[in-house]
Design goal:
By secondary structure, the chain is an alpha/beta fold. The chain is built from 8 helices and 5 strands, in the order βαβααβαβαααβα. 48% of the residues lie in helices and 13% in strands. Helix 3 runs parallel beside helix 4 and helix 5 runs antiparallel to helix 6. The radius of gyration is 16 Å and the shape is globular.
Length: 172
């Protein structure tokens, strides 16, 4: 007999946080427990050749997915973050220190992933600087957006262990 899952009251879940924090890994694990469709924003936005969709292509796709009854979406994409926060039932914020996220980027280097259309190789200094600056540059905006929607259920994890404990708690 399979695992018995606890009832999960949410149908639209946004998972956000610093790159390298494990948003996609967490989202896949959540999907496996609650059986909601999963959308990785990196897969939607990026092409295999490392070019990306224009805003005119990306925004309608985002709006179409957001309008669906059920979803888990992982990714930041600041220009569309408020759309997801305003539409979600549950916001999960992986609020990890930069070093944890940098370690996550190092650990996934050279590995094929279902949430990215190419294999990351080597160091992208601009990307690493974005991660280092996330706490002071991006995090305040995220907290401001969260504050705009006090009716939303928000779960913030500060460690990977907290996130793993939450996922374990969803199992019977």
């Amino acid at each position: 007999m399979g695992k018995i899952m606890k009832a999960f009251p949410y149908k639209r879940v946004a998972v956000i946080g610093c790159p390298g924090g494990g948003k996609s890994t967490f989202s896949r694990a959540l999907r496996d427990r609650v059986d909601l469709p999963l959308y990785h924003l990196d897969v939607i936005y990026w092409r295999d050749d490392r070019t990306h969709l224009s805003k005119e292509e990306f925004y309608p796709l985002m709006q179409e997915i957001i309008a669906r009854d059920e979803w888990i979406m992982d990714g930041n994409y600041g220009s569309t973050m408020e759309w997801r926060i305003s539409a979600c039932d549950l916001l999960i914020f992986l609020d990890y220190p930069a070093e944890v996220c940098l370690e996550g980027v190092r650990a996934r280097r050279g590995q094929k992933r279902s949430d990215m259309p190419w294999v990351e190789e080597g160091d992208d200094q601009e990307f690493l600087e974005f991660i280092r600056a996330f706490e002071t540059e991006s995090r305040p905006r995220i907290l401001e957006l969260i504050g705009k929607y006090p009716d939303k259920a928000v779960v913030t994890f500060r460690t990977r262990e907290e996130a793993e404990g939450y996922l374990a708690g969803l199992e019977g």
